[in-house]
Write a structure and sequence with these properties.
alpha/beta; Rossmann fold; 6-stranded parallel beta sheet; 8 helices
């Protein structure tokens, strides 16, 4: 798999699991999947004001008989903590794809606290997590997470490490 091909593959994996809704806060790491979703007449893409809105939206999508995924950055996981109880208590499936910040080679120290806590916070709220740091890991891990979320009514998250996404540079 080429260096950035994994970004398009995220969208293809979601489609293969019959995901019809993508809720997201704009993020460069998710830009390929977002653009593909917006161009697809069978896909609804919803721009969120804040990440926790996506959890309620996707719960409604599930209750309406469809599937969705939440595309967010690790800094937004902190906004979701209380809302994640909905999925745990009601056993509503939730699939999250989380681009990591506060990870390897982070230039912005404000990203570090939540970036370092993301996986622990998700697990503490009952979310099953996996981490991809290499392009060849993305498809199998996302397939597995989607299967567990949608077939087992689980909350699952694939964390996309900063080494996978690439080092961000401060531009003045």
């Amino acid at each position: 798999m080429s260096e950035n091909q994994w970004q398009d593959e995220i969208y293809r994996v979601l489609k293969s699991h019959d995901v019809r809704h993508i809720a997201y806060v704009p993020d460069a790491g998710h830009s390929a999947a977002i653009k593909l979703a917006e161009a697809d007449n069978e896909m609804t893409s919803l721009v969120l004001t804040t990440e926790e809105e996506g959890i309620g939206y996707l719960a409604g999508v599930h209750l309406g008989g469809q599937r969705g995924a939440l595309l967010i950055q690790s800094s937004g996981v902190g906004n979701c903590i209380n809302t994640l109880a909905l999925n745990q208590m009601a056993r509503i499936p939730l699939l999250m794809v989380v681009t990591m910040r506060g990870d390897w080679a982070e230039f912005n120290p404000w990203q570090n606290p939540m970036g370092q806590a993301t996986e622990t916070v998700l697990r503490s709220m009952g979310v099953l997590t996996w981490r991809a740091d290499a392009p060849q890991d993305v498809v199998p891990l996302l397939n597995g997470a989607a299967g567990m979320a949608f077939n087992g009514d689980q909350a699952c998250a694939l964390l996309l490490g900063q080494r996978l996404i690439g080092e961000k540079k401060w531009v003045k």
